[in-house]
Design goal:
Layout (H helix, E strand, L loop, with lengths): L37 H8 L3 H17 L11 H10 L10 E5 L7 H7 L4 E6 L2 H13 L6 E5 L13 E7 L4 H8 L3 E11 L3 H7 L1 H6 L6 E5 L8 E7 L17 E2 L20
Parallel strand pairs: 1-2, 1-4, 2-3, 4-5
Antiparallel strand pairs: 3-8, 5-7, 6-7
């Protein structure tokens, strides 16, 4: 039976799509899946594995040249970044709206868009050089129909657009108390924050439990994703937004959030066109 997330034979648009820029690549690393992770990658990305490989190539070429990932990350981009992020999709329901806060190079936002074409994803990132890469990558990978790039800070987006999301994701952004303060207001009541964390996730969840509940979140729960697929599994802290809390507005940076503002953006979801589906 075909997985409804992927569709029959859905491998993304075309086989050859140029990268977001013509920057010279750093010393060669293969974007192909290492043999040790071939099965995990195939199960994580399904029929869209070749699209994931194209994104891997963008990360280890333009991503390194433009300072979005470190050169030492290139040889382990599959296990440490792509598969690590993709397995969290098991916690996201079909057809959900997702806001990825502090998207950086697109982790986990672009990974989720590649693995799950059923999701409607907004990538939130305050830095222009990063939103430029994100918009170019989204277009190069043919993800414009399901992905929007927004330049801005999470706290400036409260009240929308975008509309409150079913799921808010974040990876390596901040401690849980600050993360909850930024991200929970972007989730619908009943929606969830999924924060990718490391080995000390349980201790961090306990430390910030009171602050999280004060911000309208439920008890933080530590989940393991990709058990039996990757070792170690991906650690995710799940926080349900149980109620809306009126919080003091943060001091303004003087810049309004700008949907799709990025260099080289020329249309599609990465250039500020909003969709009405999530209003």
């Amino acid at each position: 039976m075909t997985d409804p997330r992927f569709g029959a034979g859905d491998d993304g648009p075309g086989d050859v799509v140029p990268g977001p820029s013509s920057s010279a690549a750093p010393p060669a690393f293969s974007s192909g899946v290492p043999a040790a992770f071939a099965d995990a990658a195939s199960r994580a990305f399904g029929a869209r594995l070749s699209l994931a490989a194209r994104y891997a190539k963008l990360l280890i070429t333009d991503g390194v040249v433009r300072g979005l990932i470190g050169p030492r990350e290139a040889p382990r981009v599959w296990e440490r970044h792509l598969i690590n992020c993709a397995v969290m999709s098991e916690m996201i329901p079909i057809g959900a709206s997702v806001t990825d806060v502090g998207s950086g190079a697109g982790l986990p936002g672009i990974v989720l868009a590649v693995a799950r074409p059923d999701l409607m994803i907004t990538l939130v990132e305050p830095l222009a050089r990063r939103t430029a890469f994100l918009s170019e990558a989204v277009t190069a990978l043919g993800l414009d129909a399901t992905v929007t790039v927004v330049r801005g800070r999470a706290e400036d987006l409260v009240g929308g657009p975008p509309a409150a999301a079913d799921v808010v994701t974040a990876r390596a952004v901040a401690p849980l108390d600050r993360l909850a303060g930024w991200c929970l207001p972007l989730a619908a009541v009943g929606g969830r924050l999924l924060a990718l964390k490391g080995a000390t996730a349980a201790e961090e969840a306990a430390e910030h439990h009171e602050a999280i509940t004060r911000l309208g979140g439920g008890d933080p729960v530590v989940r393991l994703c990709g058990v039996g697929l990757i070792d170690p599994p991906t650690t995710v802290v799940e926080i349900v937004r149980e109620r809306a809390v009126v919080a003091p507005r943060p001091r303004s940076s003087g810049k309004a959030a700008d949907p799709g503002r990025s260099a080289g953006s020329s249309g599609g979801r990465g250039s500020g066109k909003r969709r009405s589906r999530r209003g």
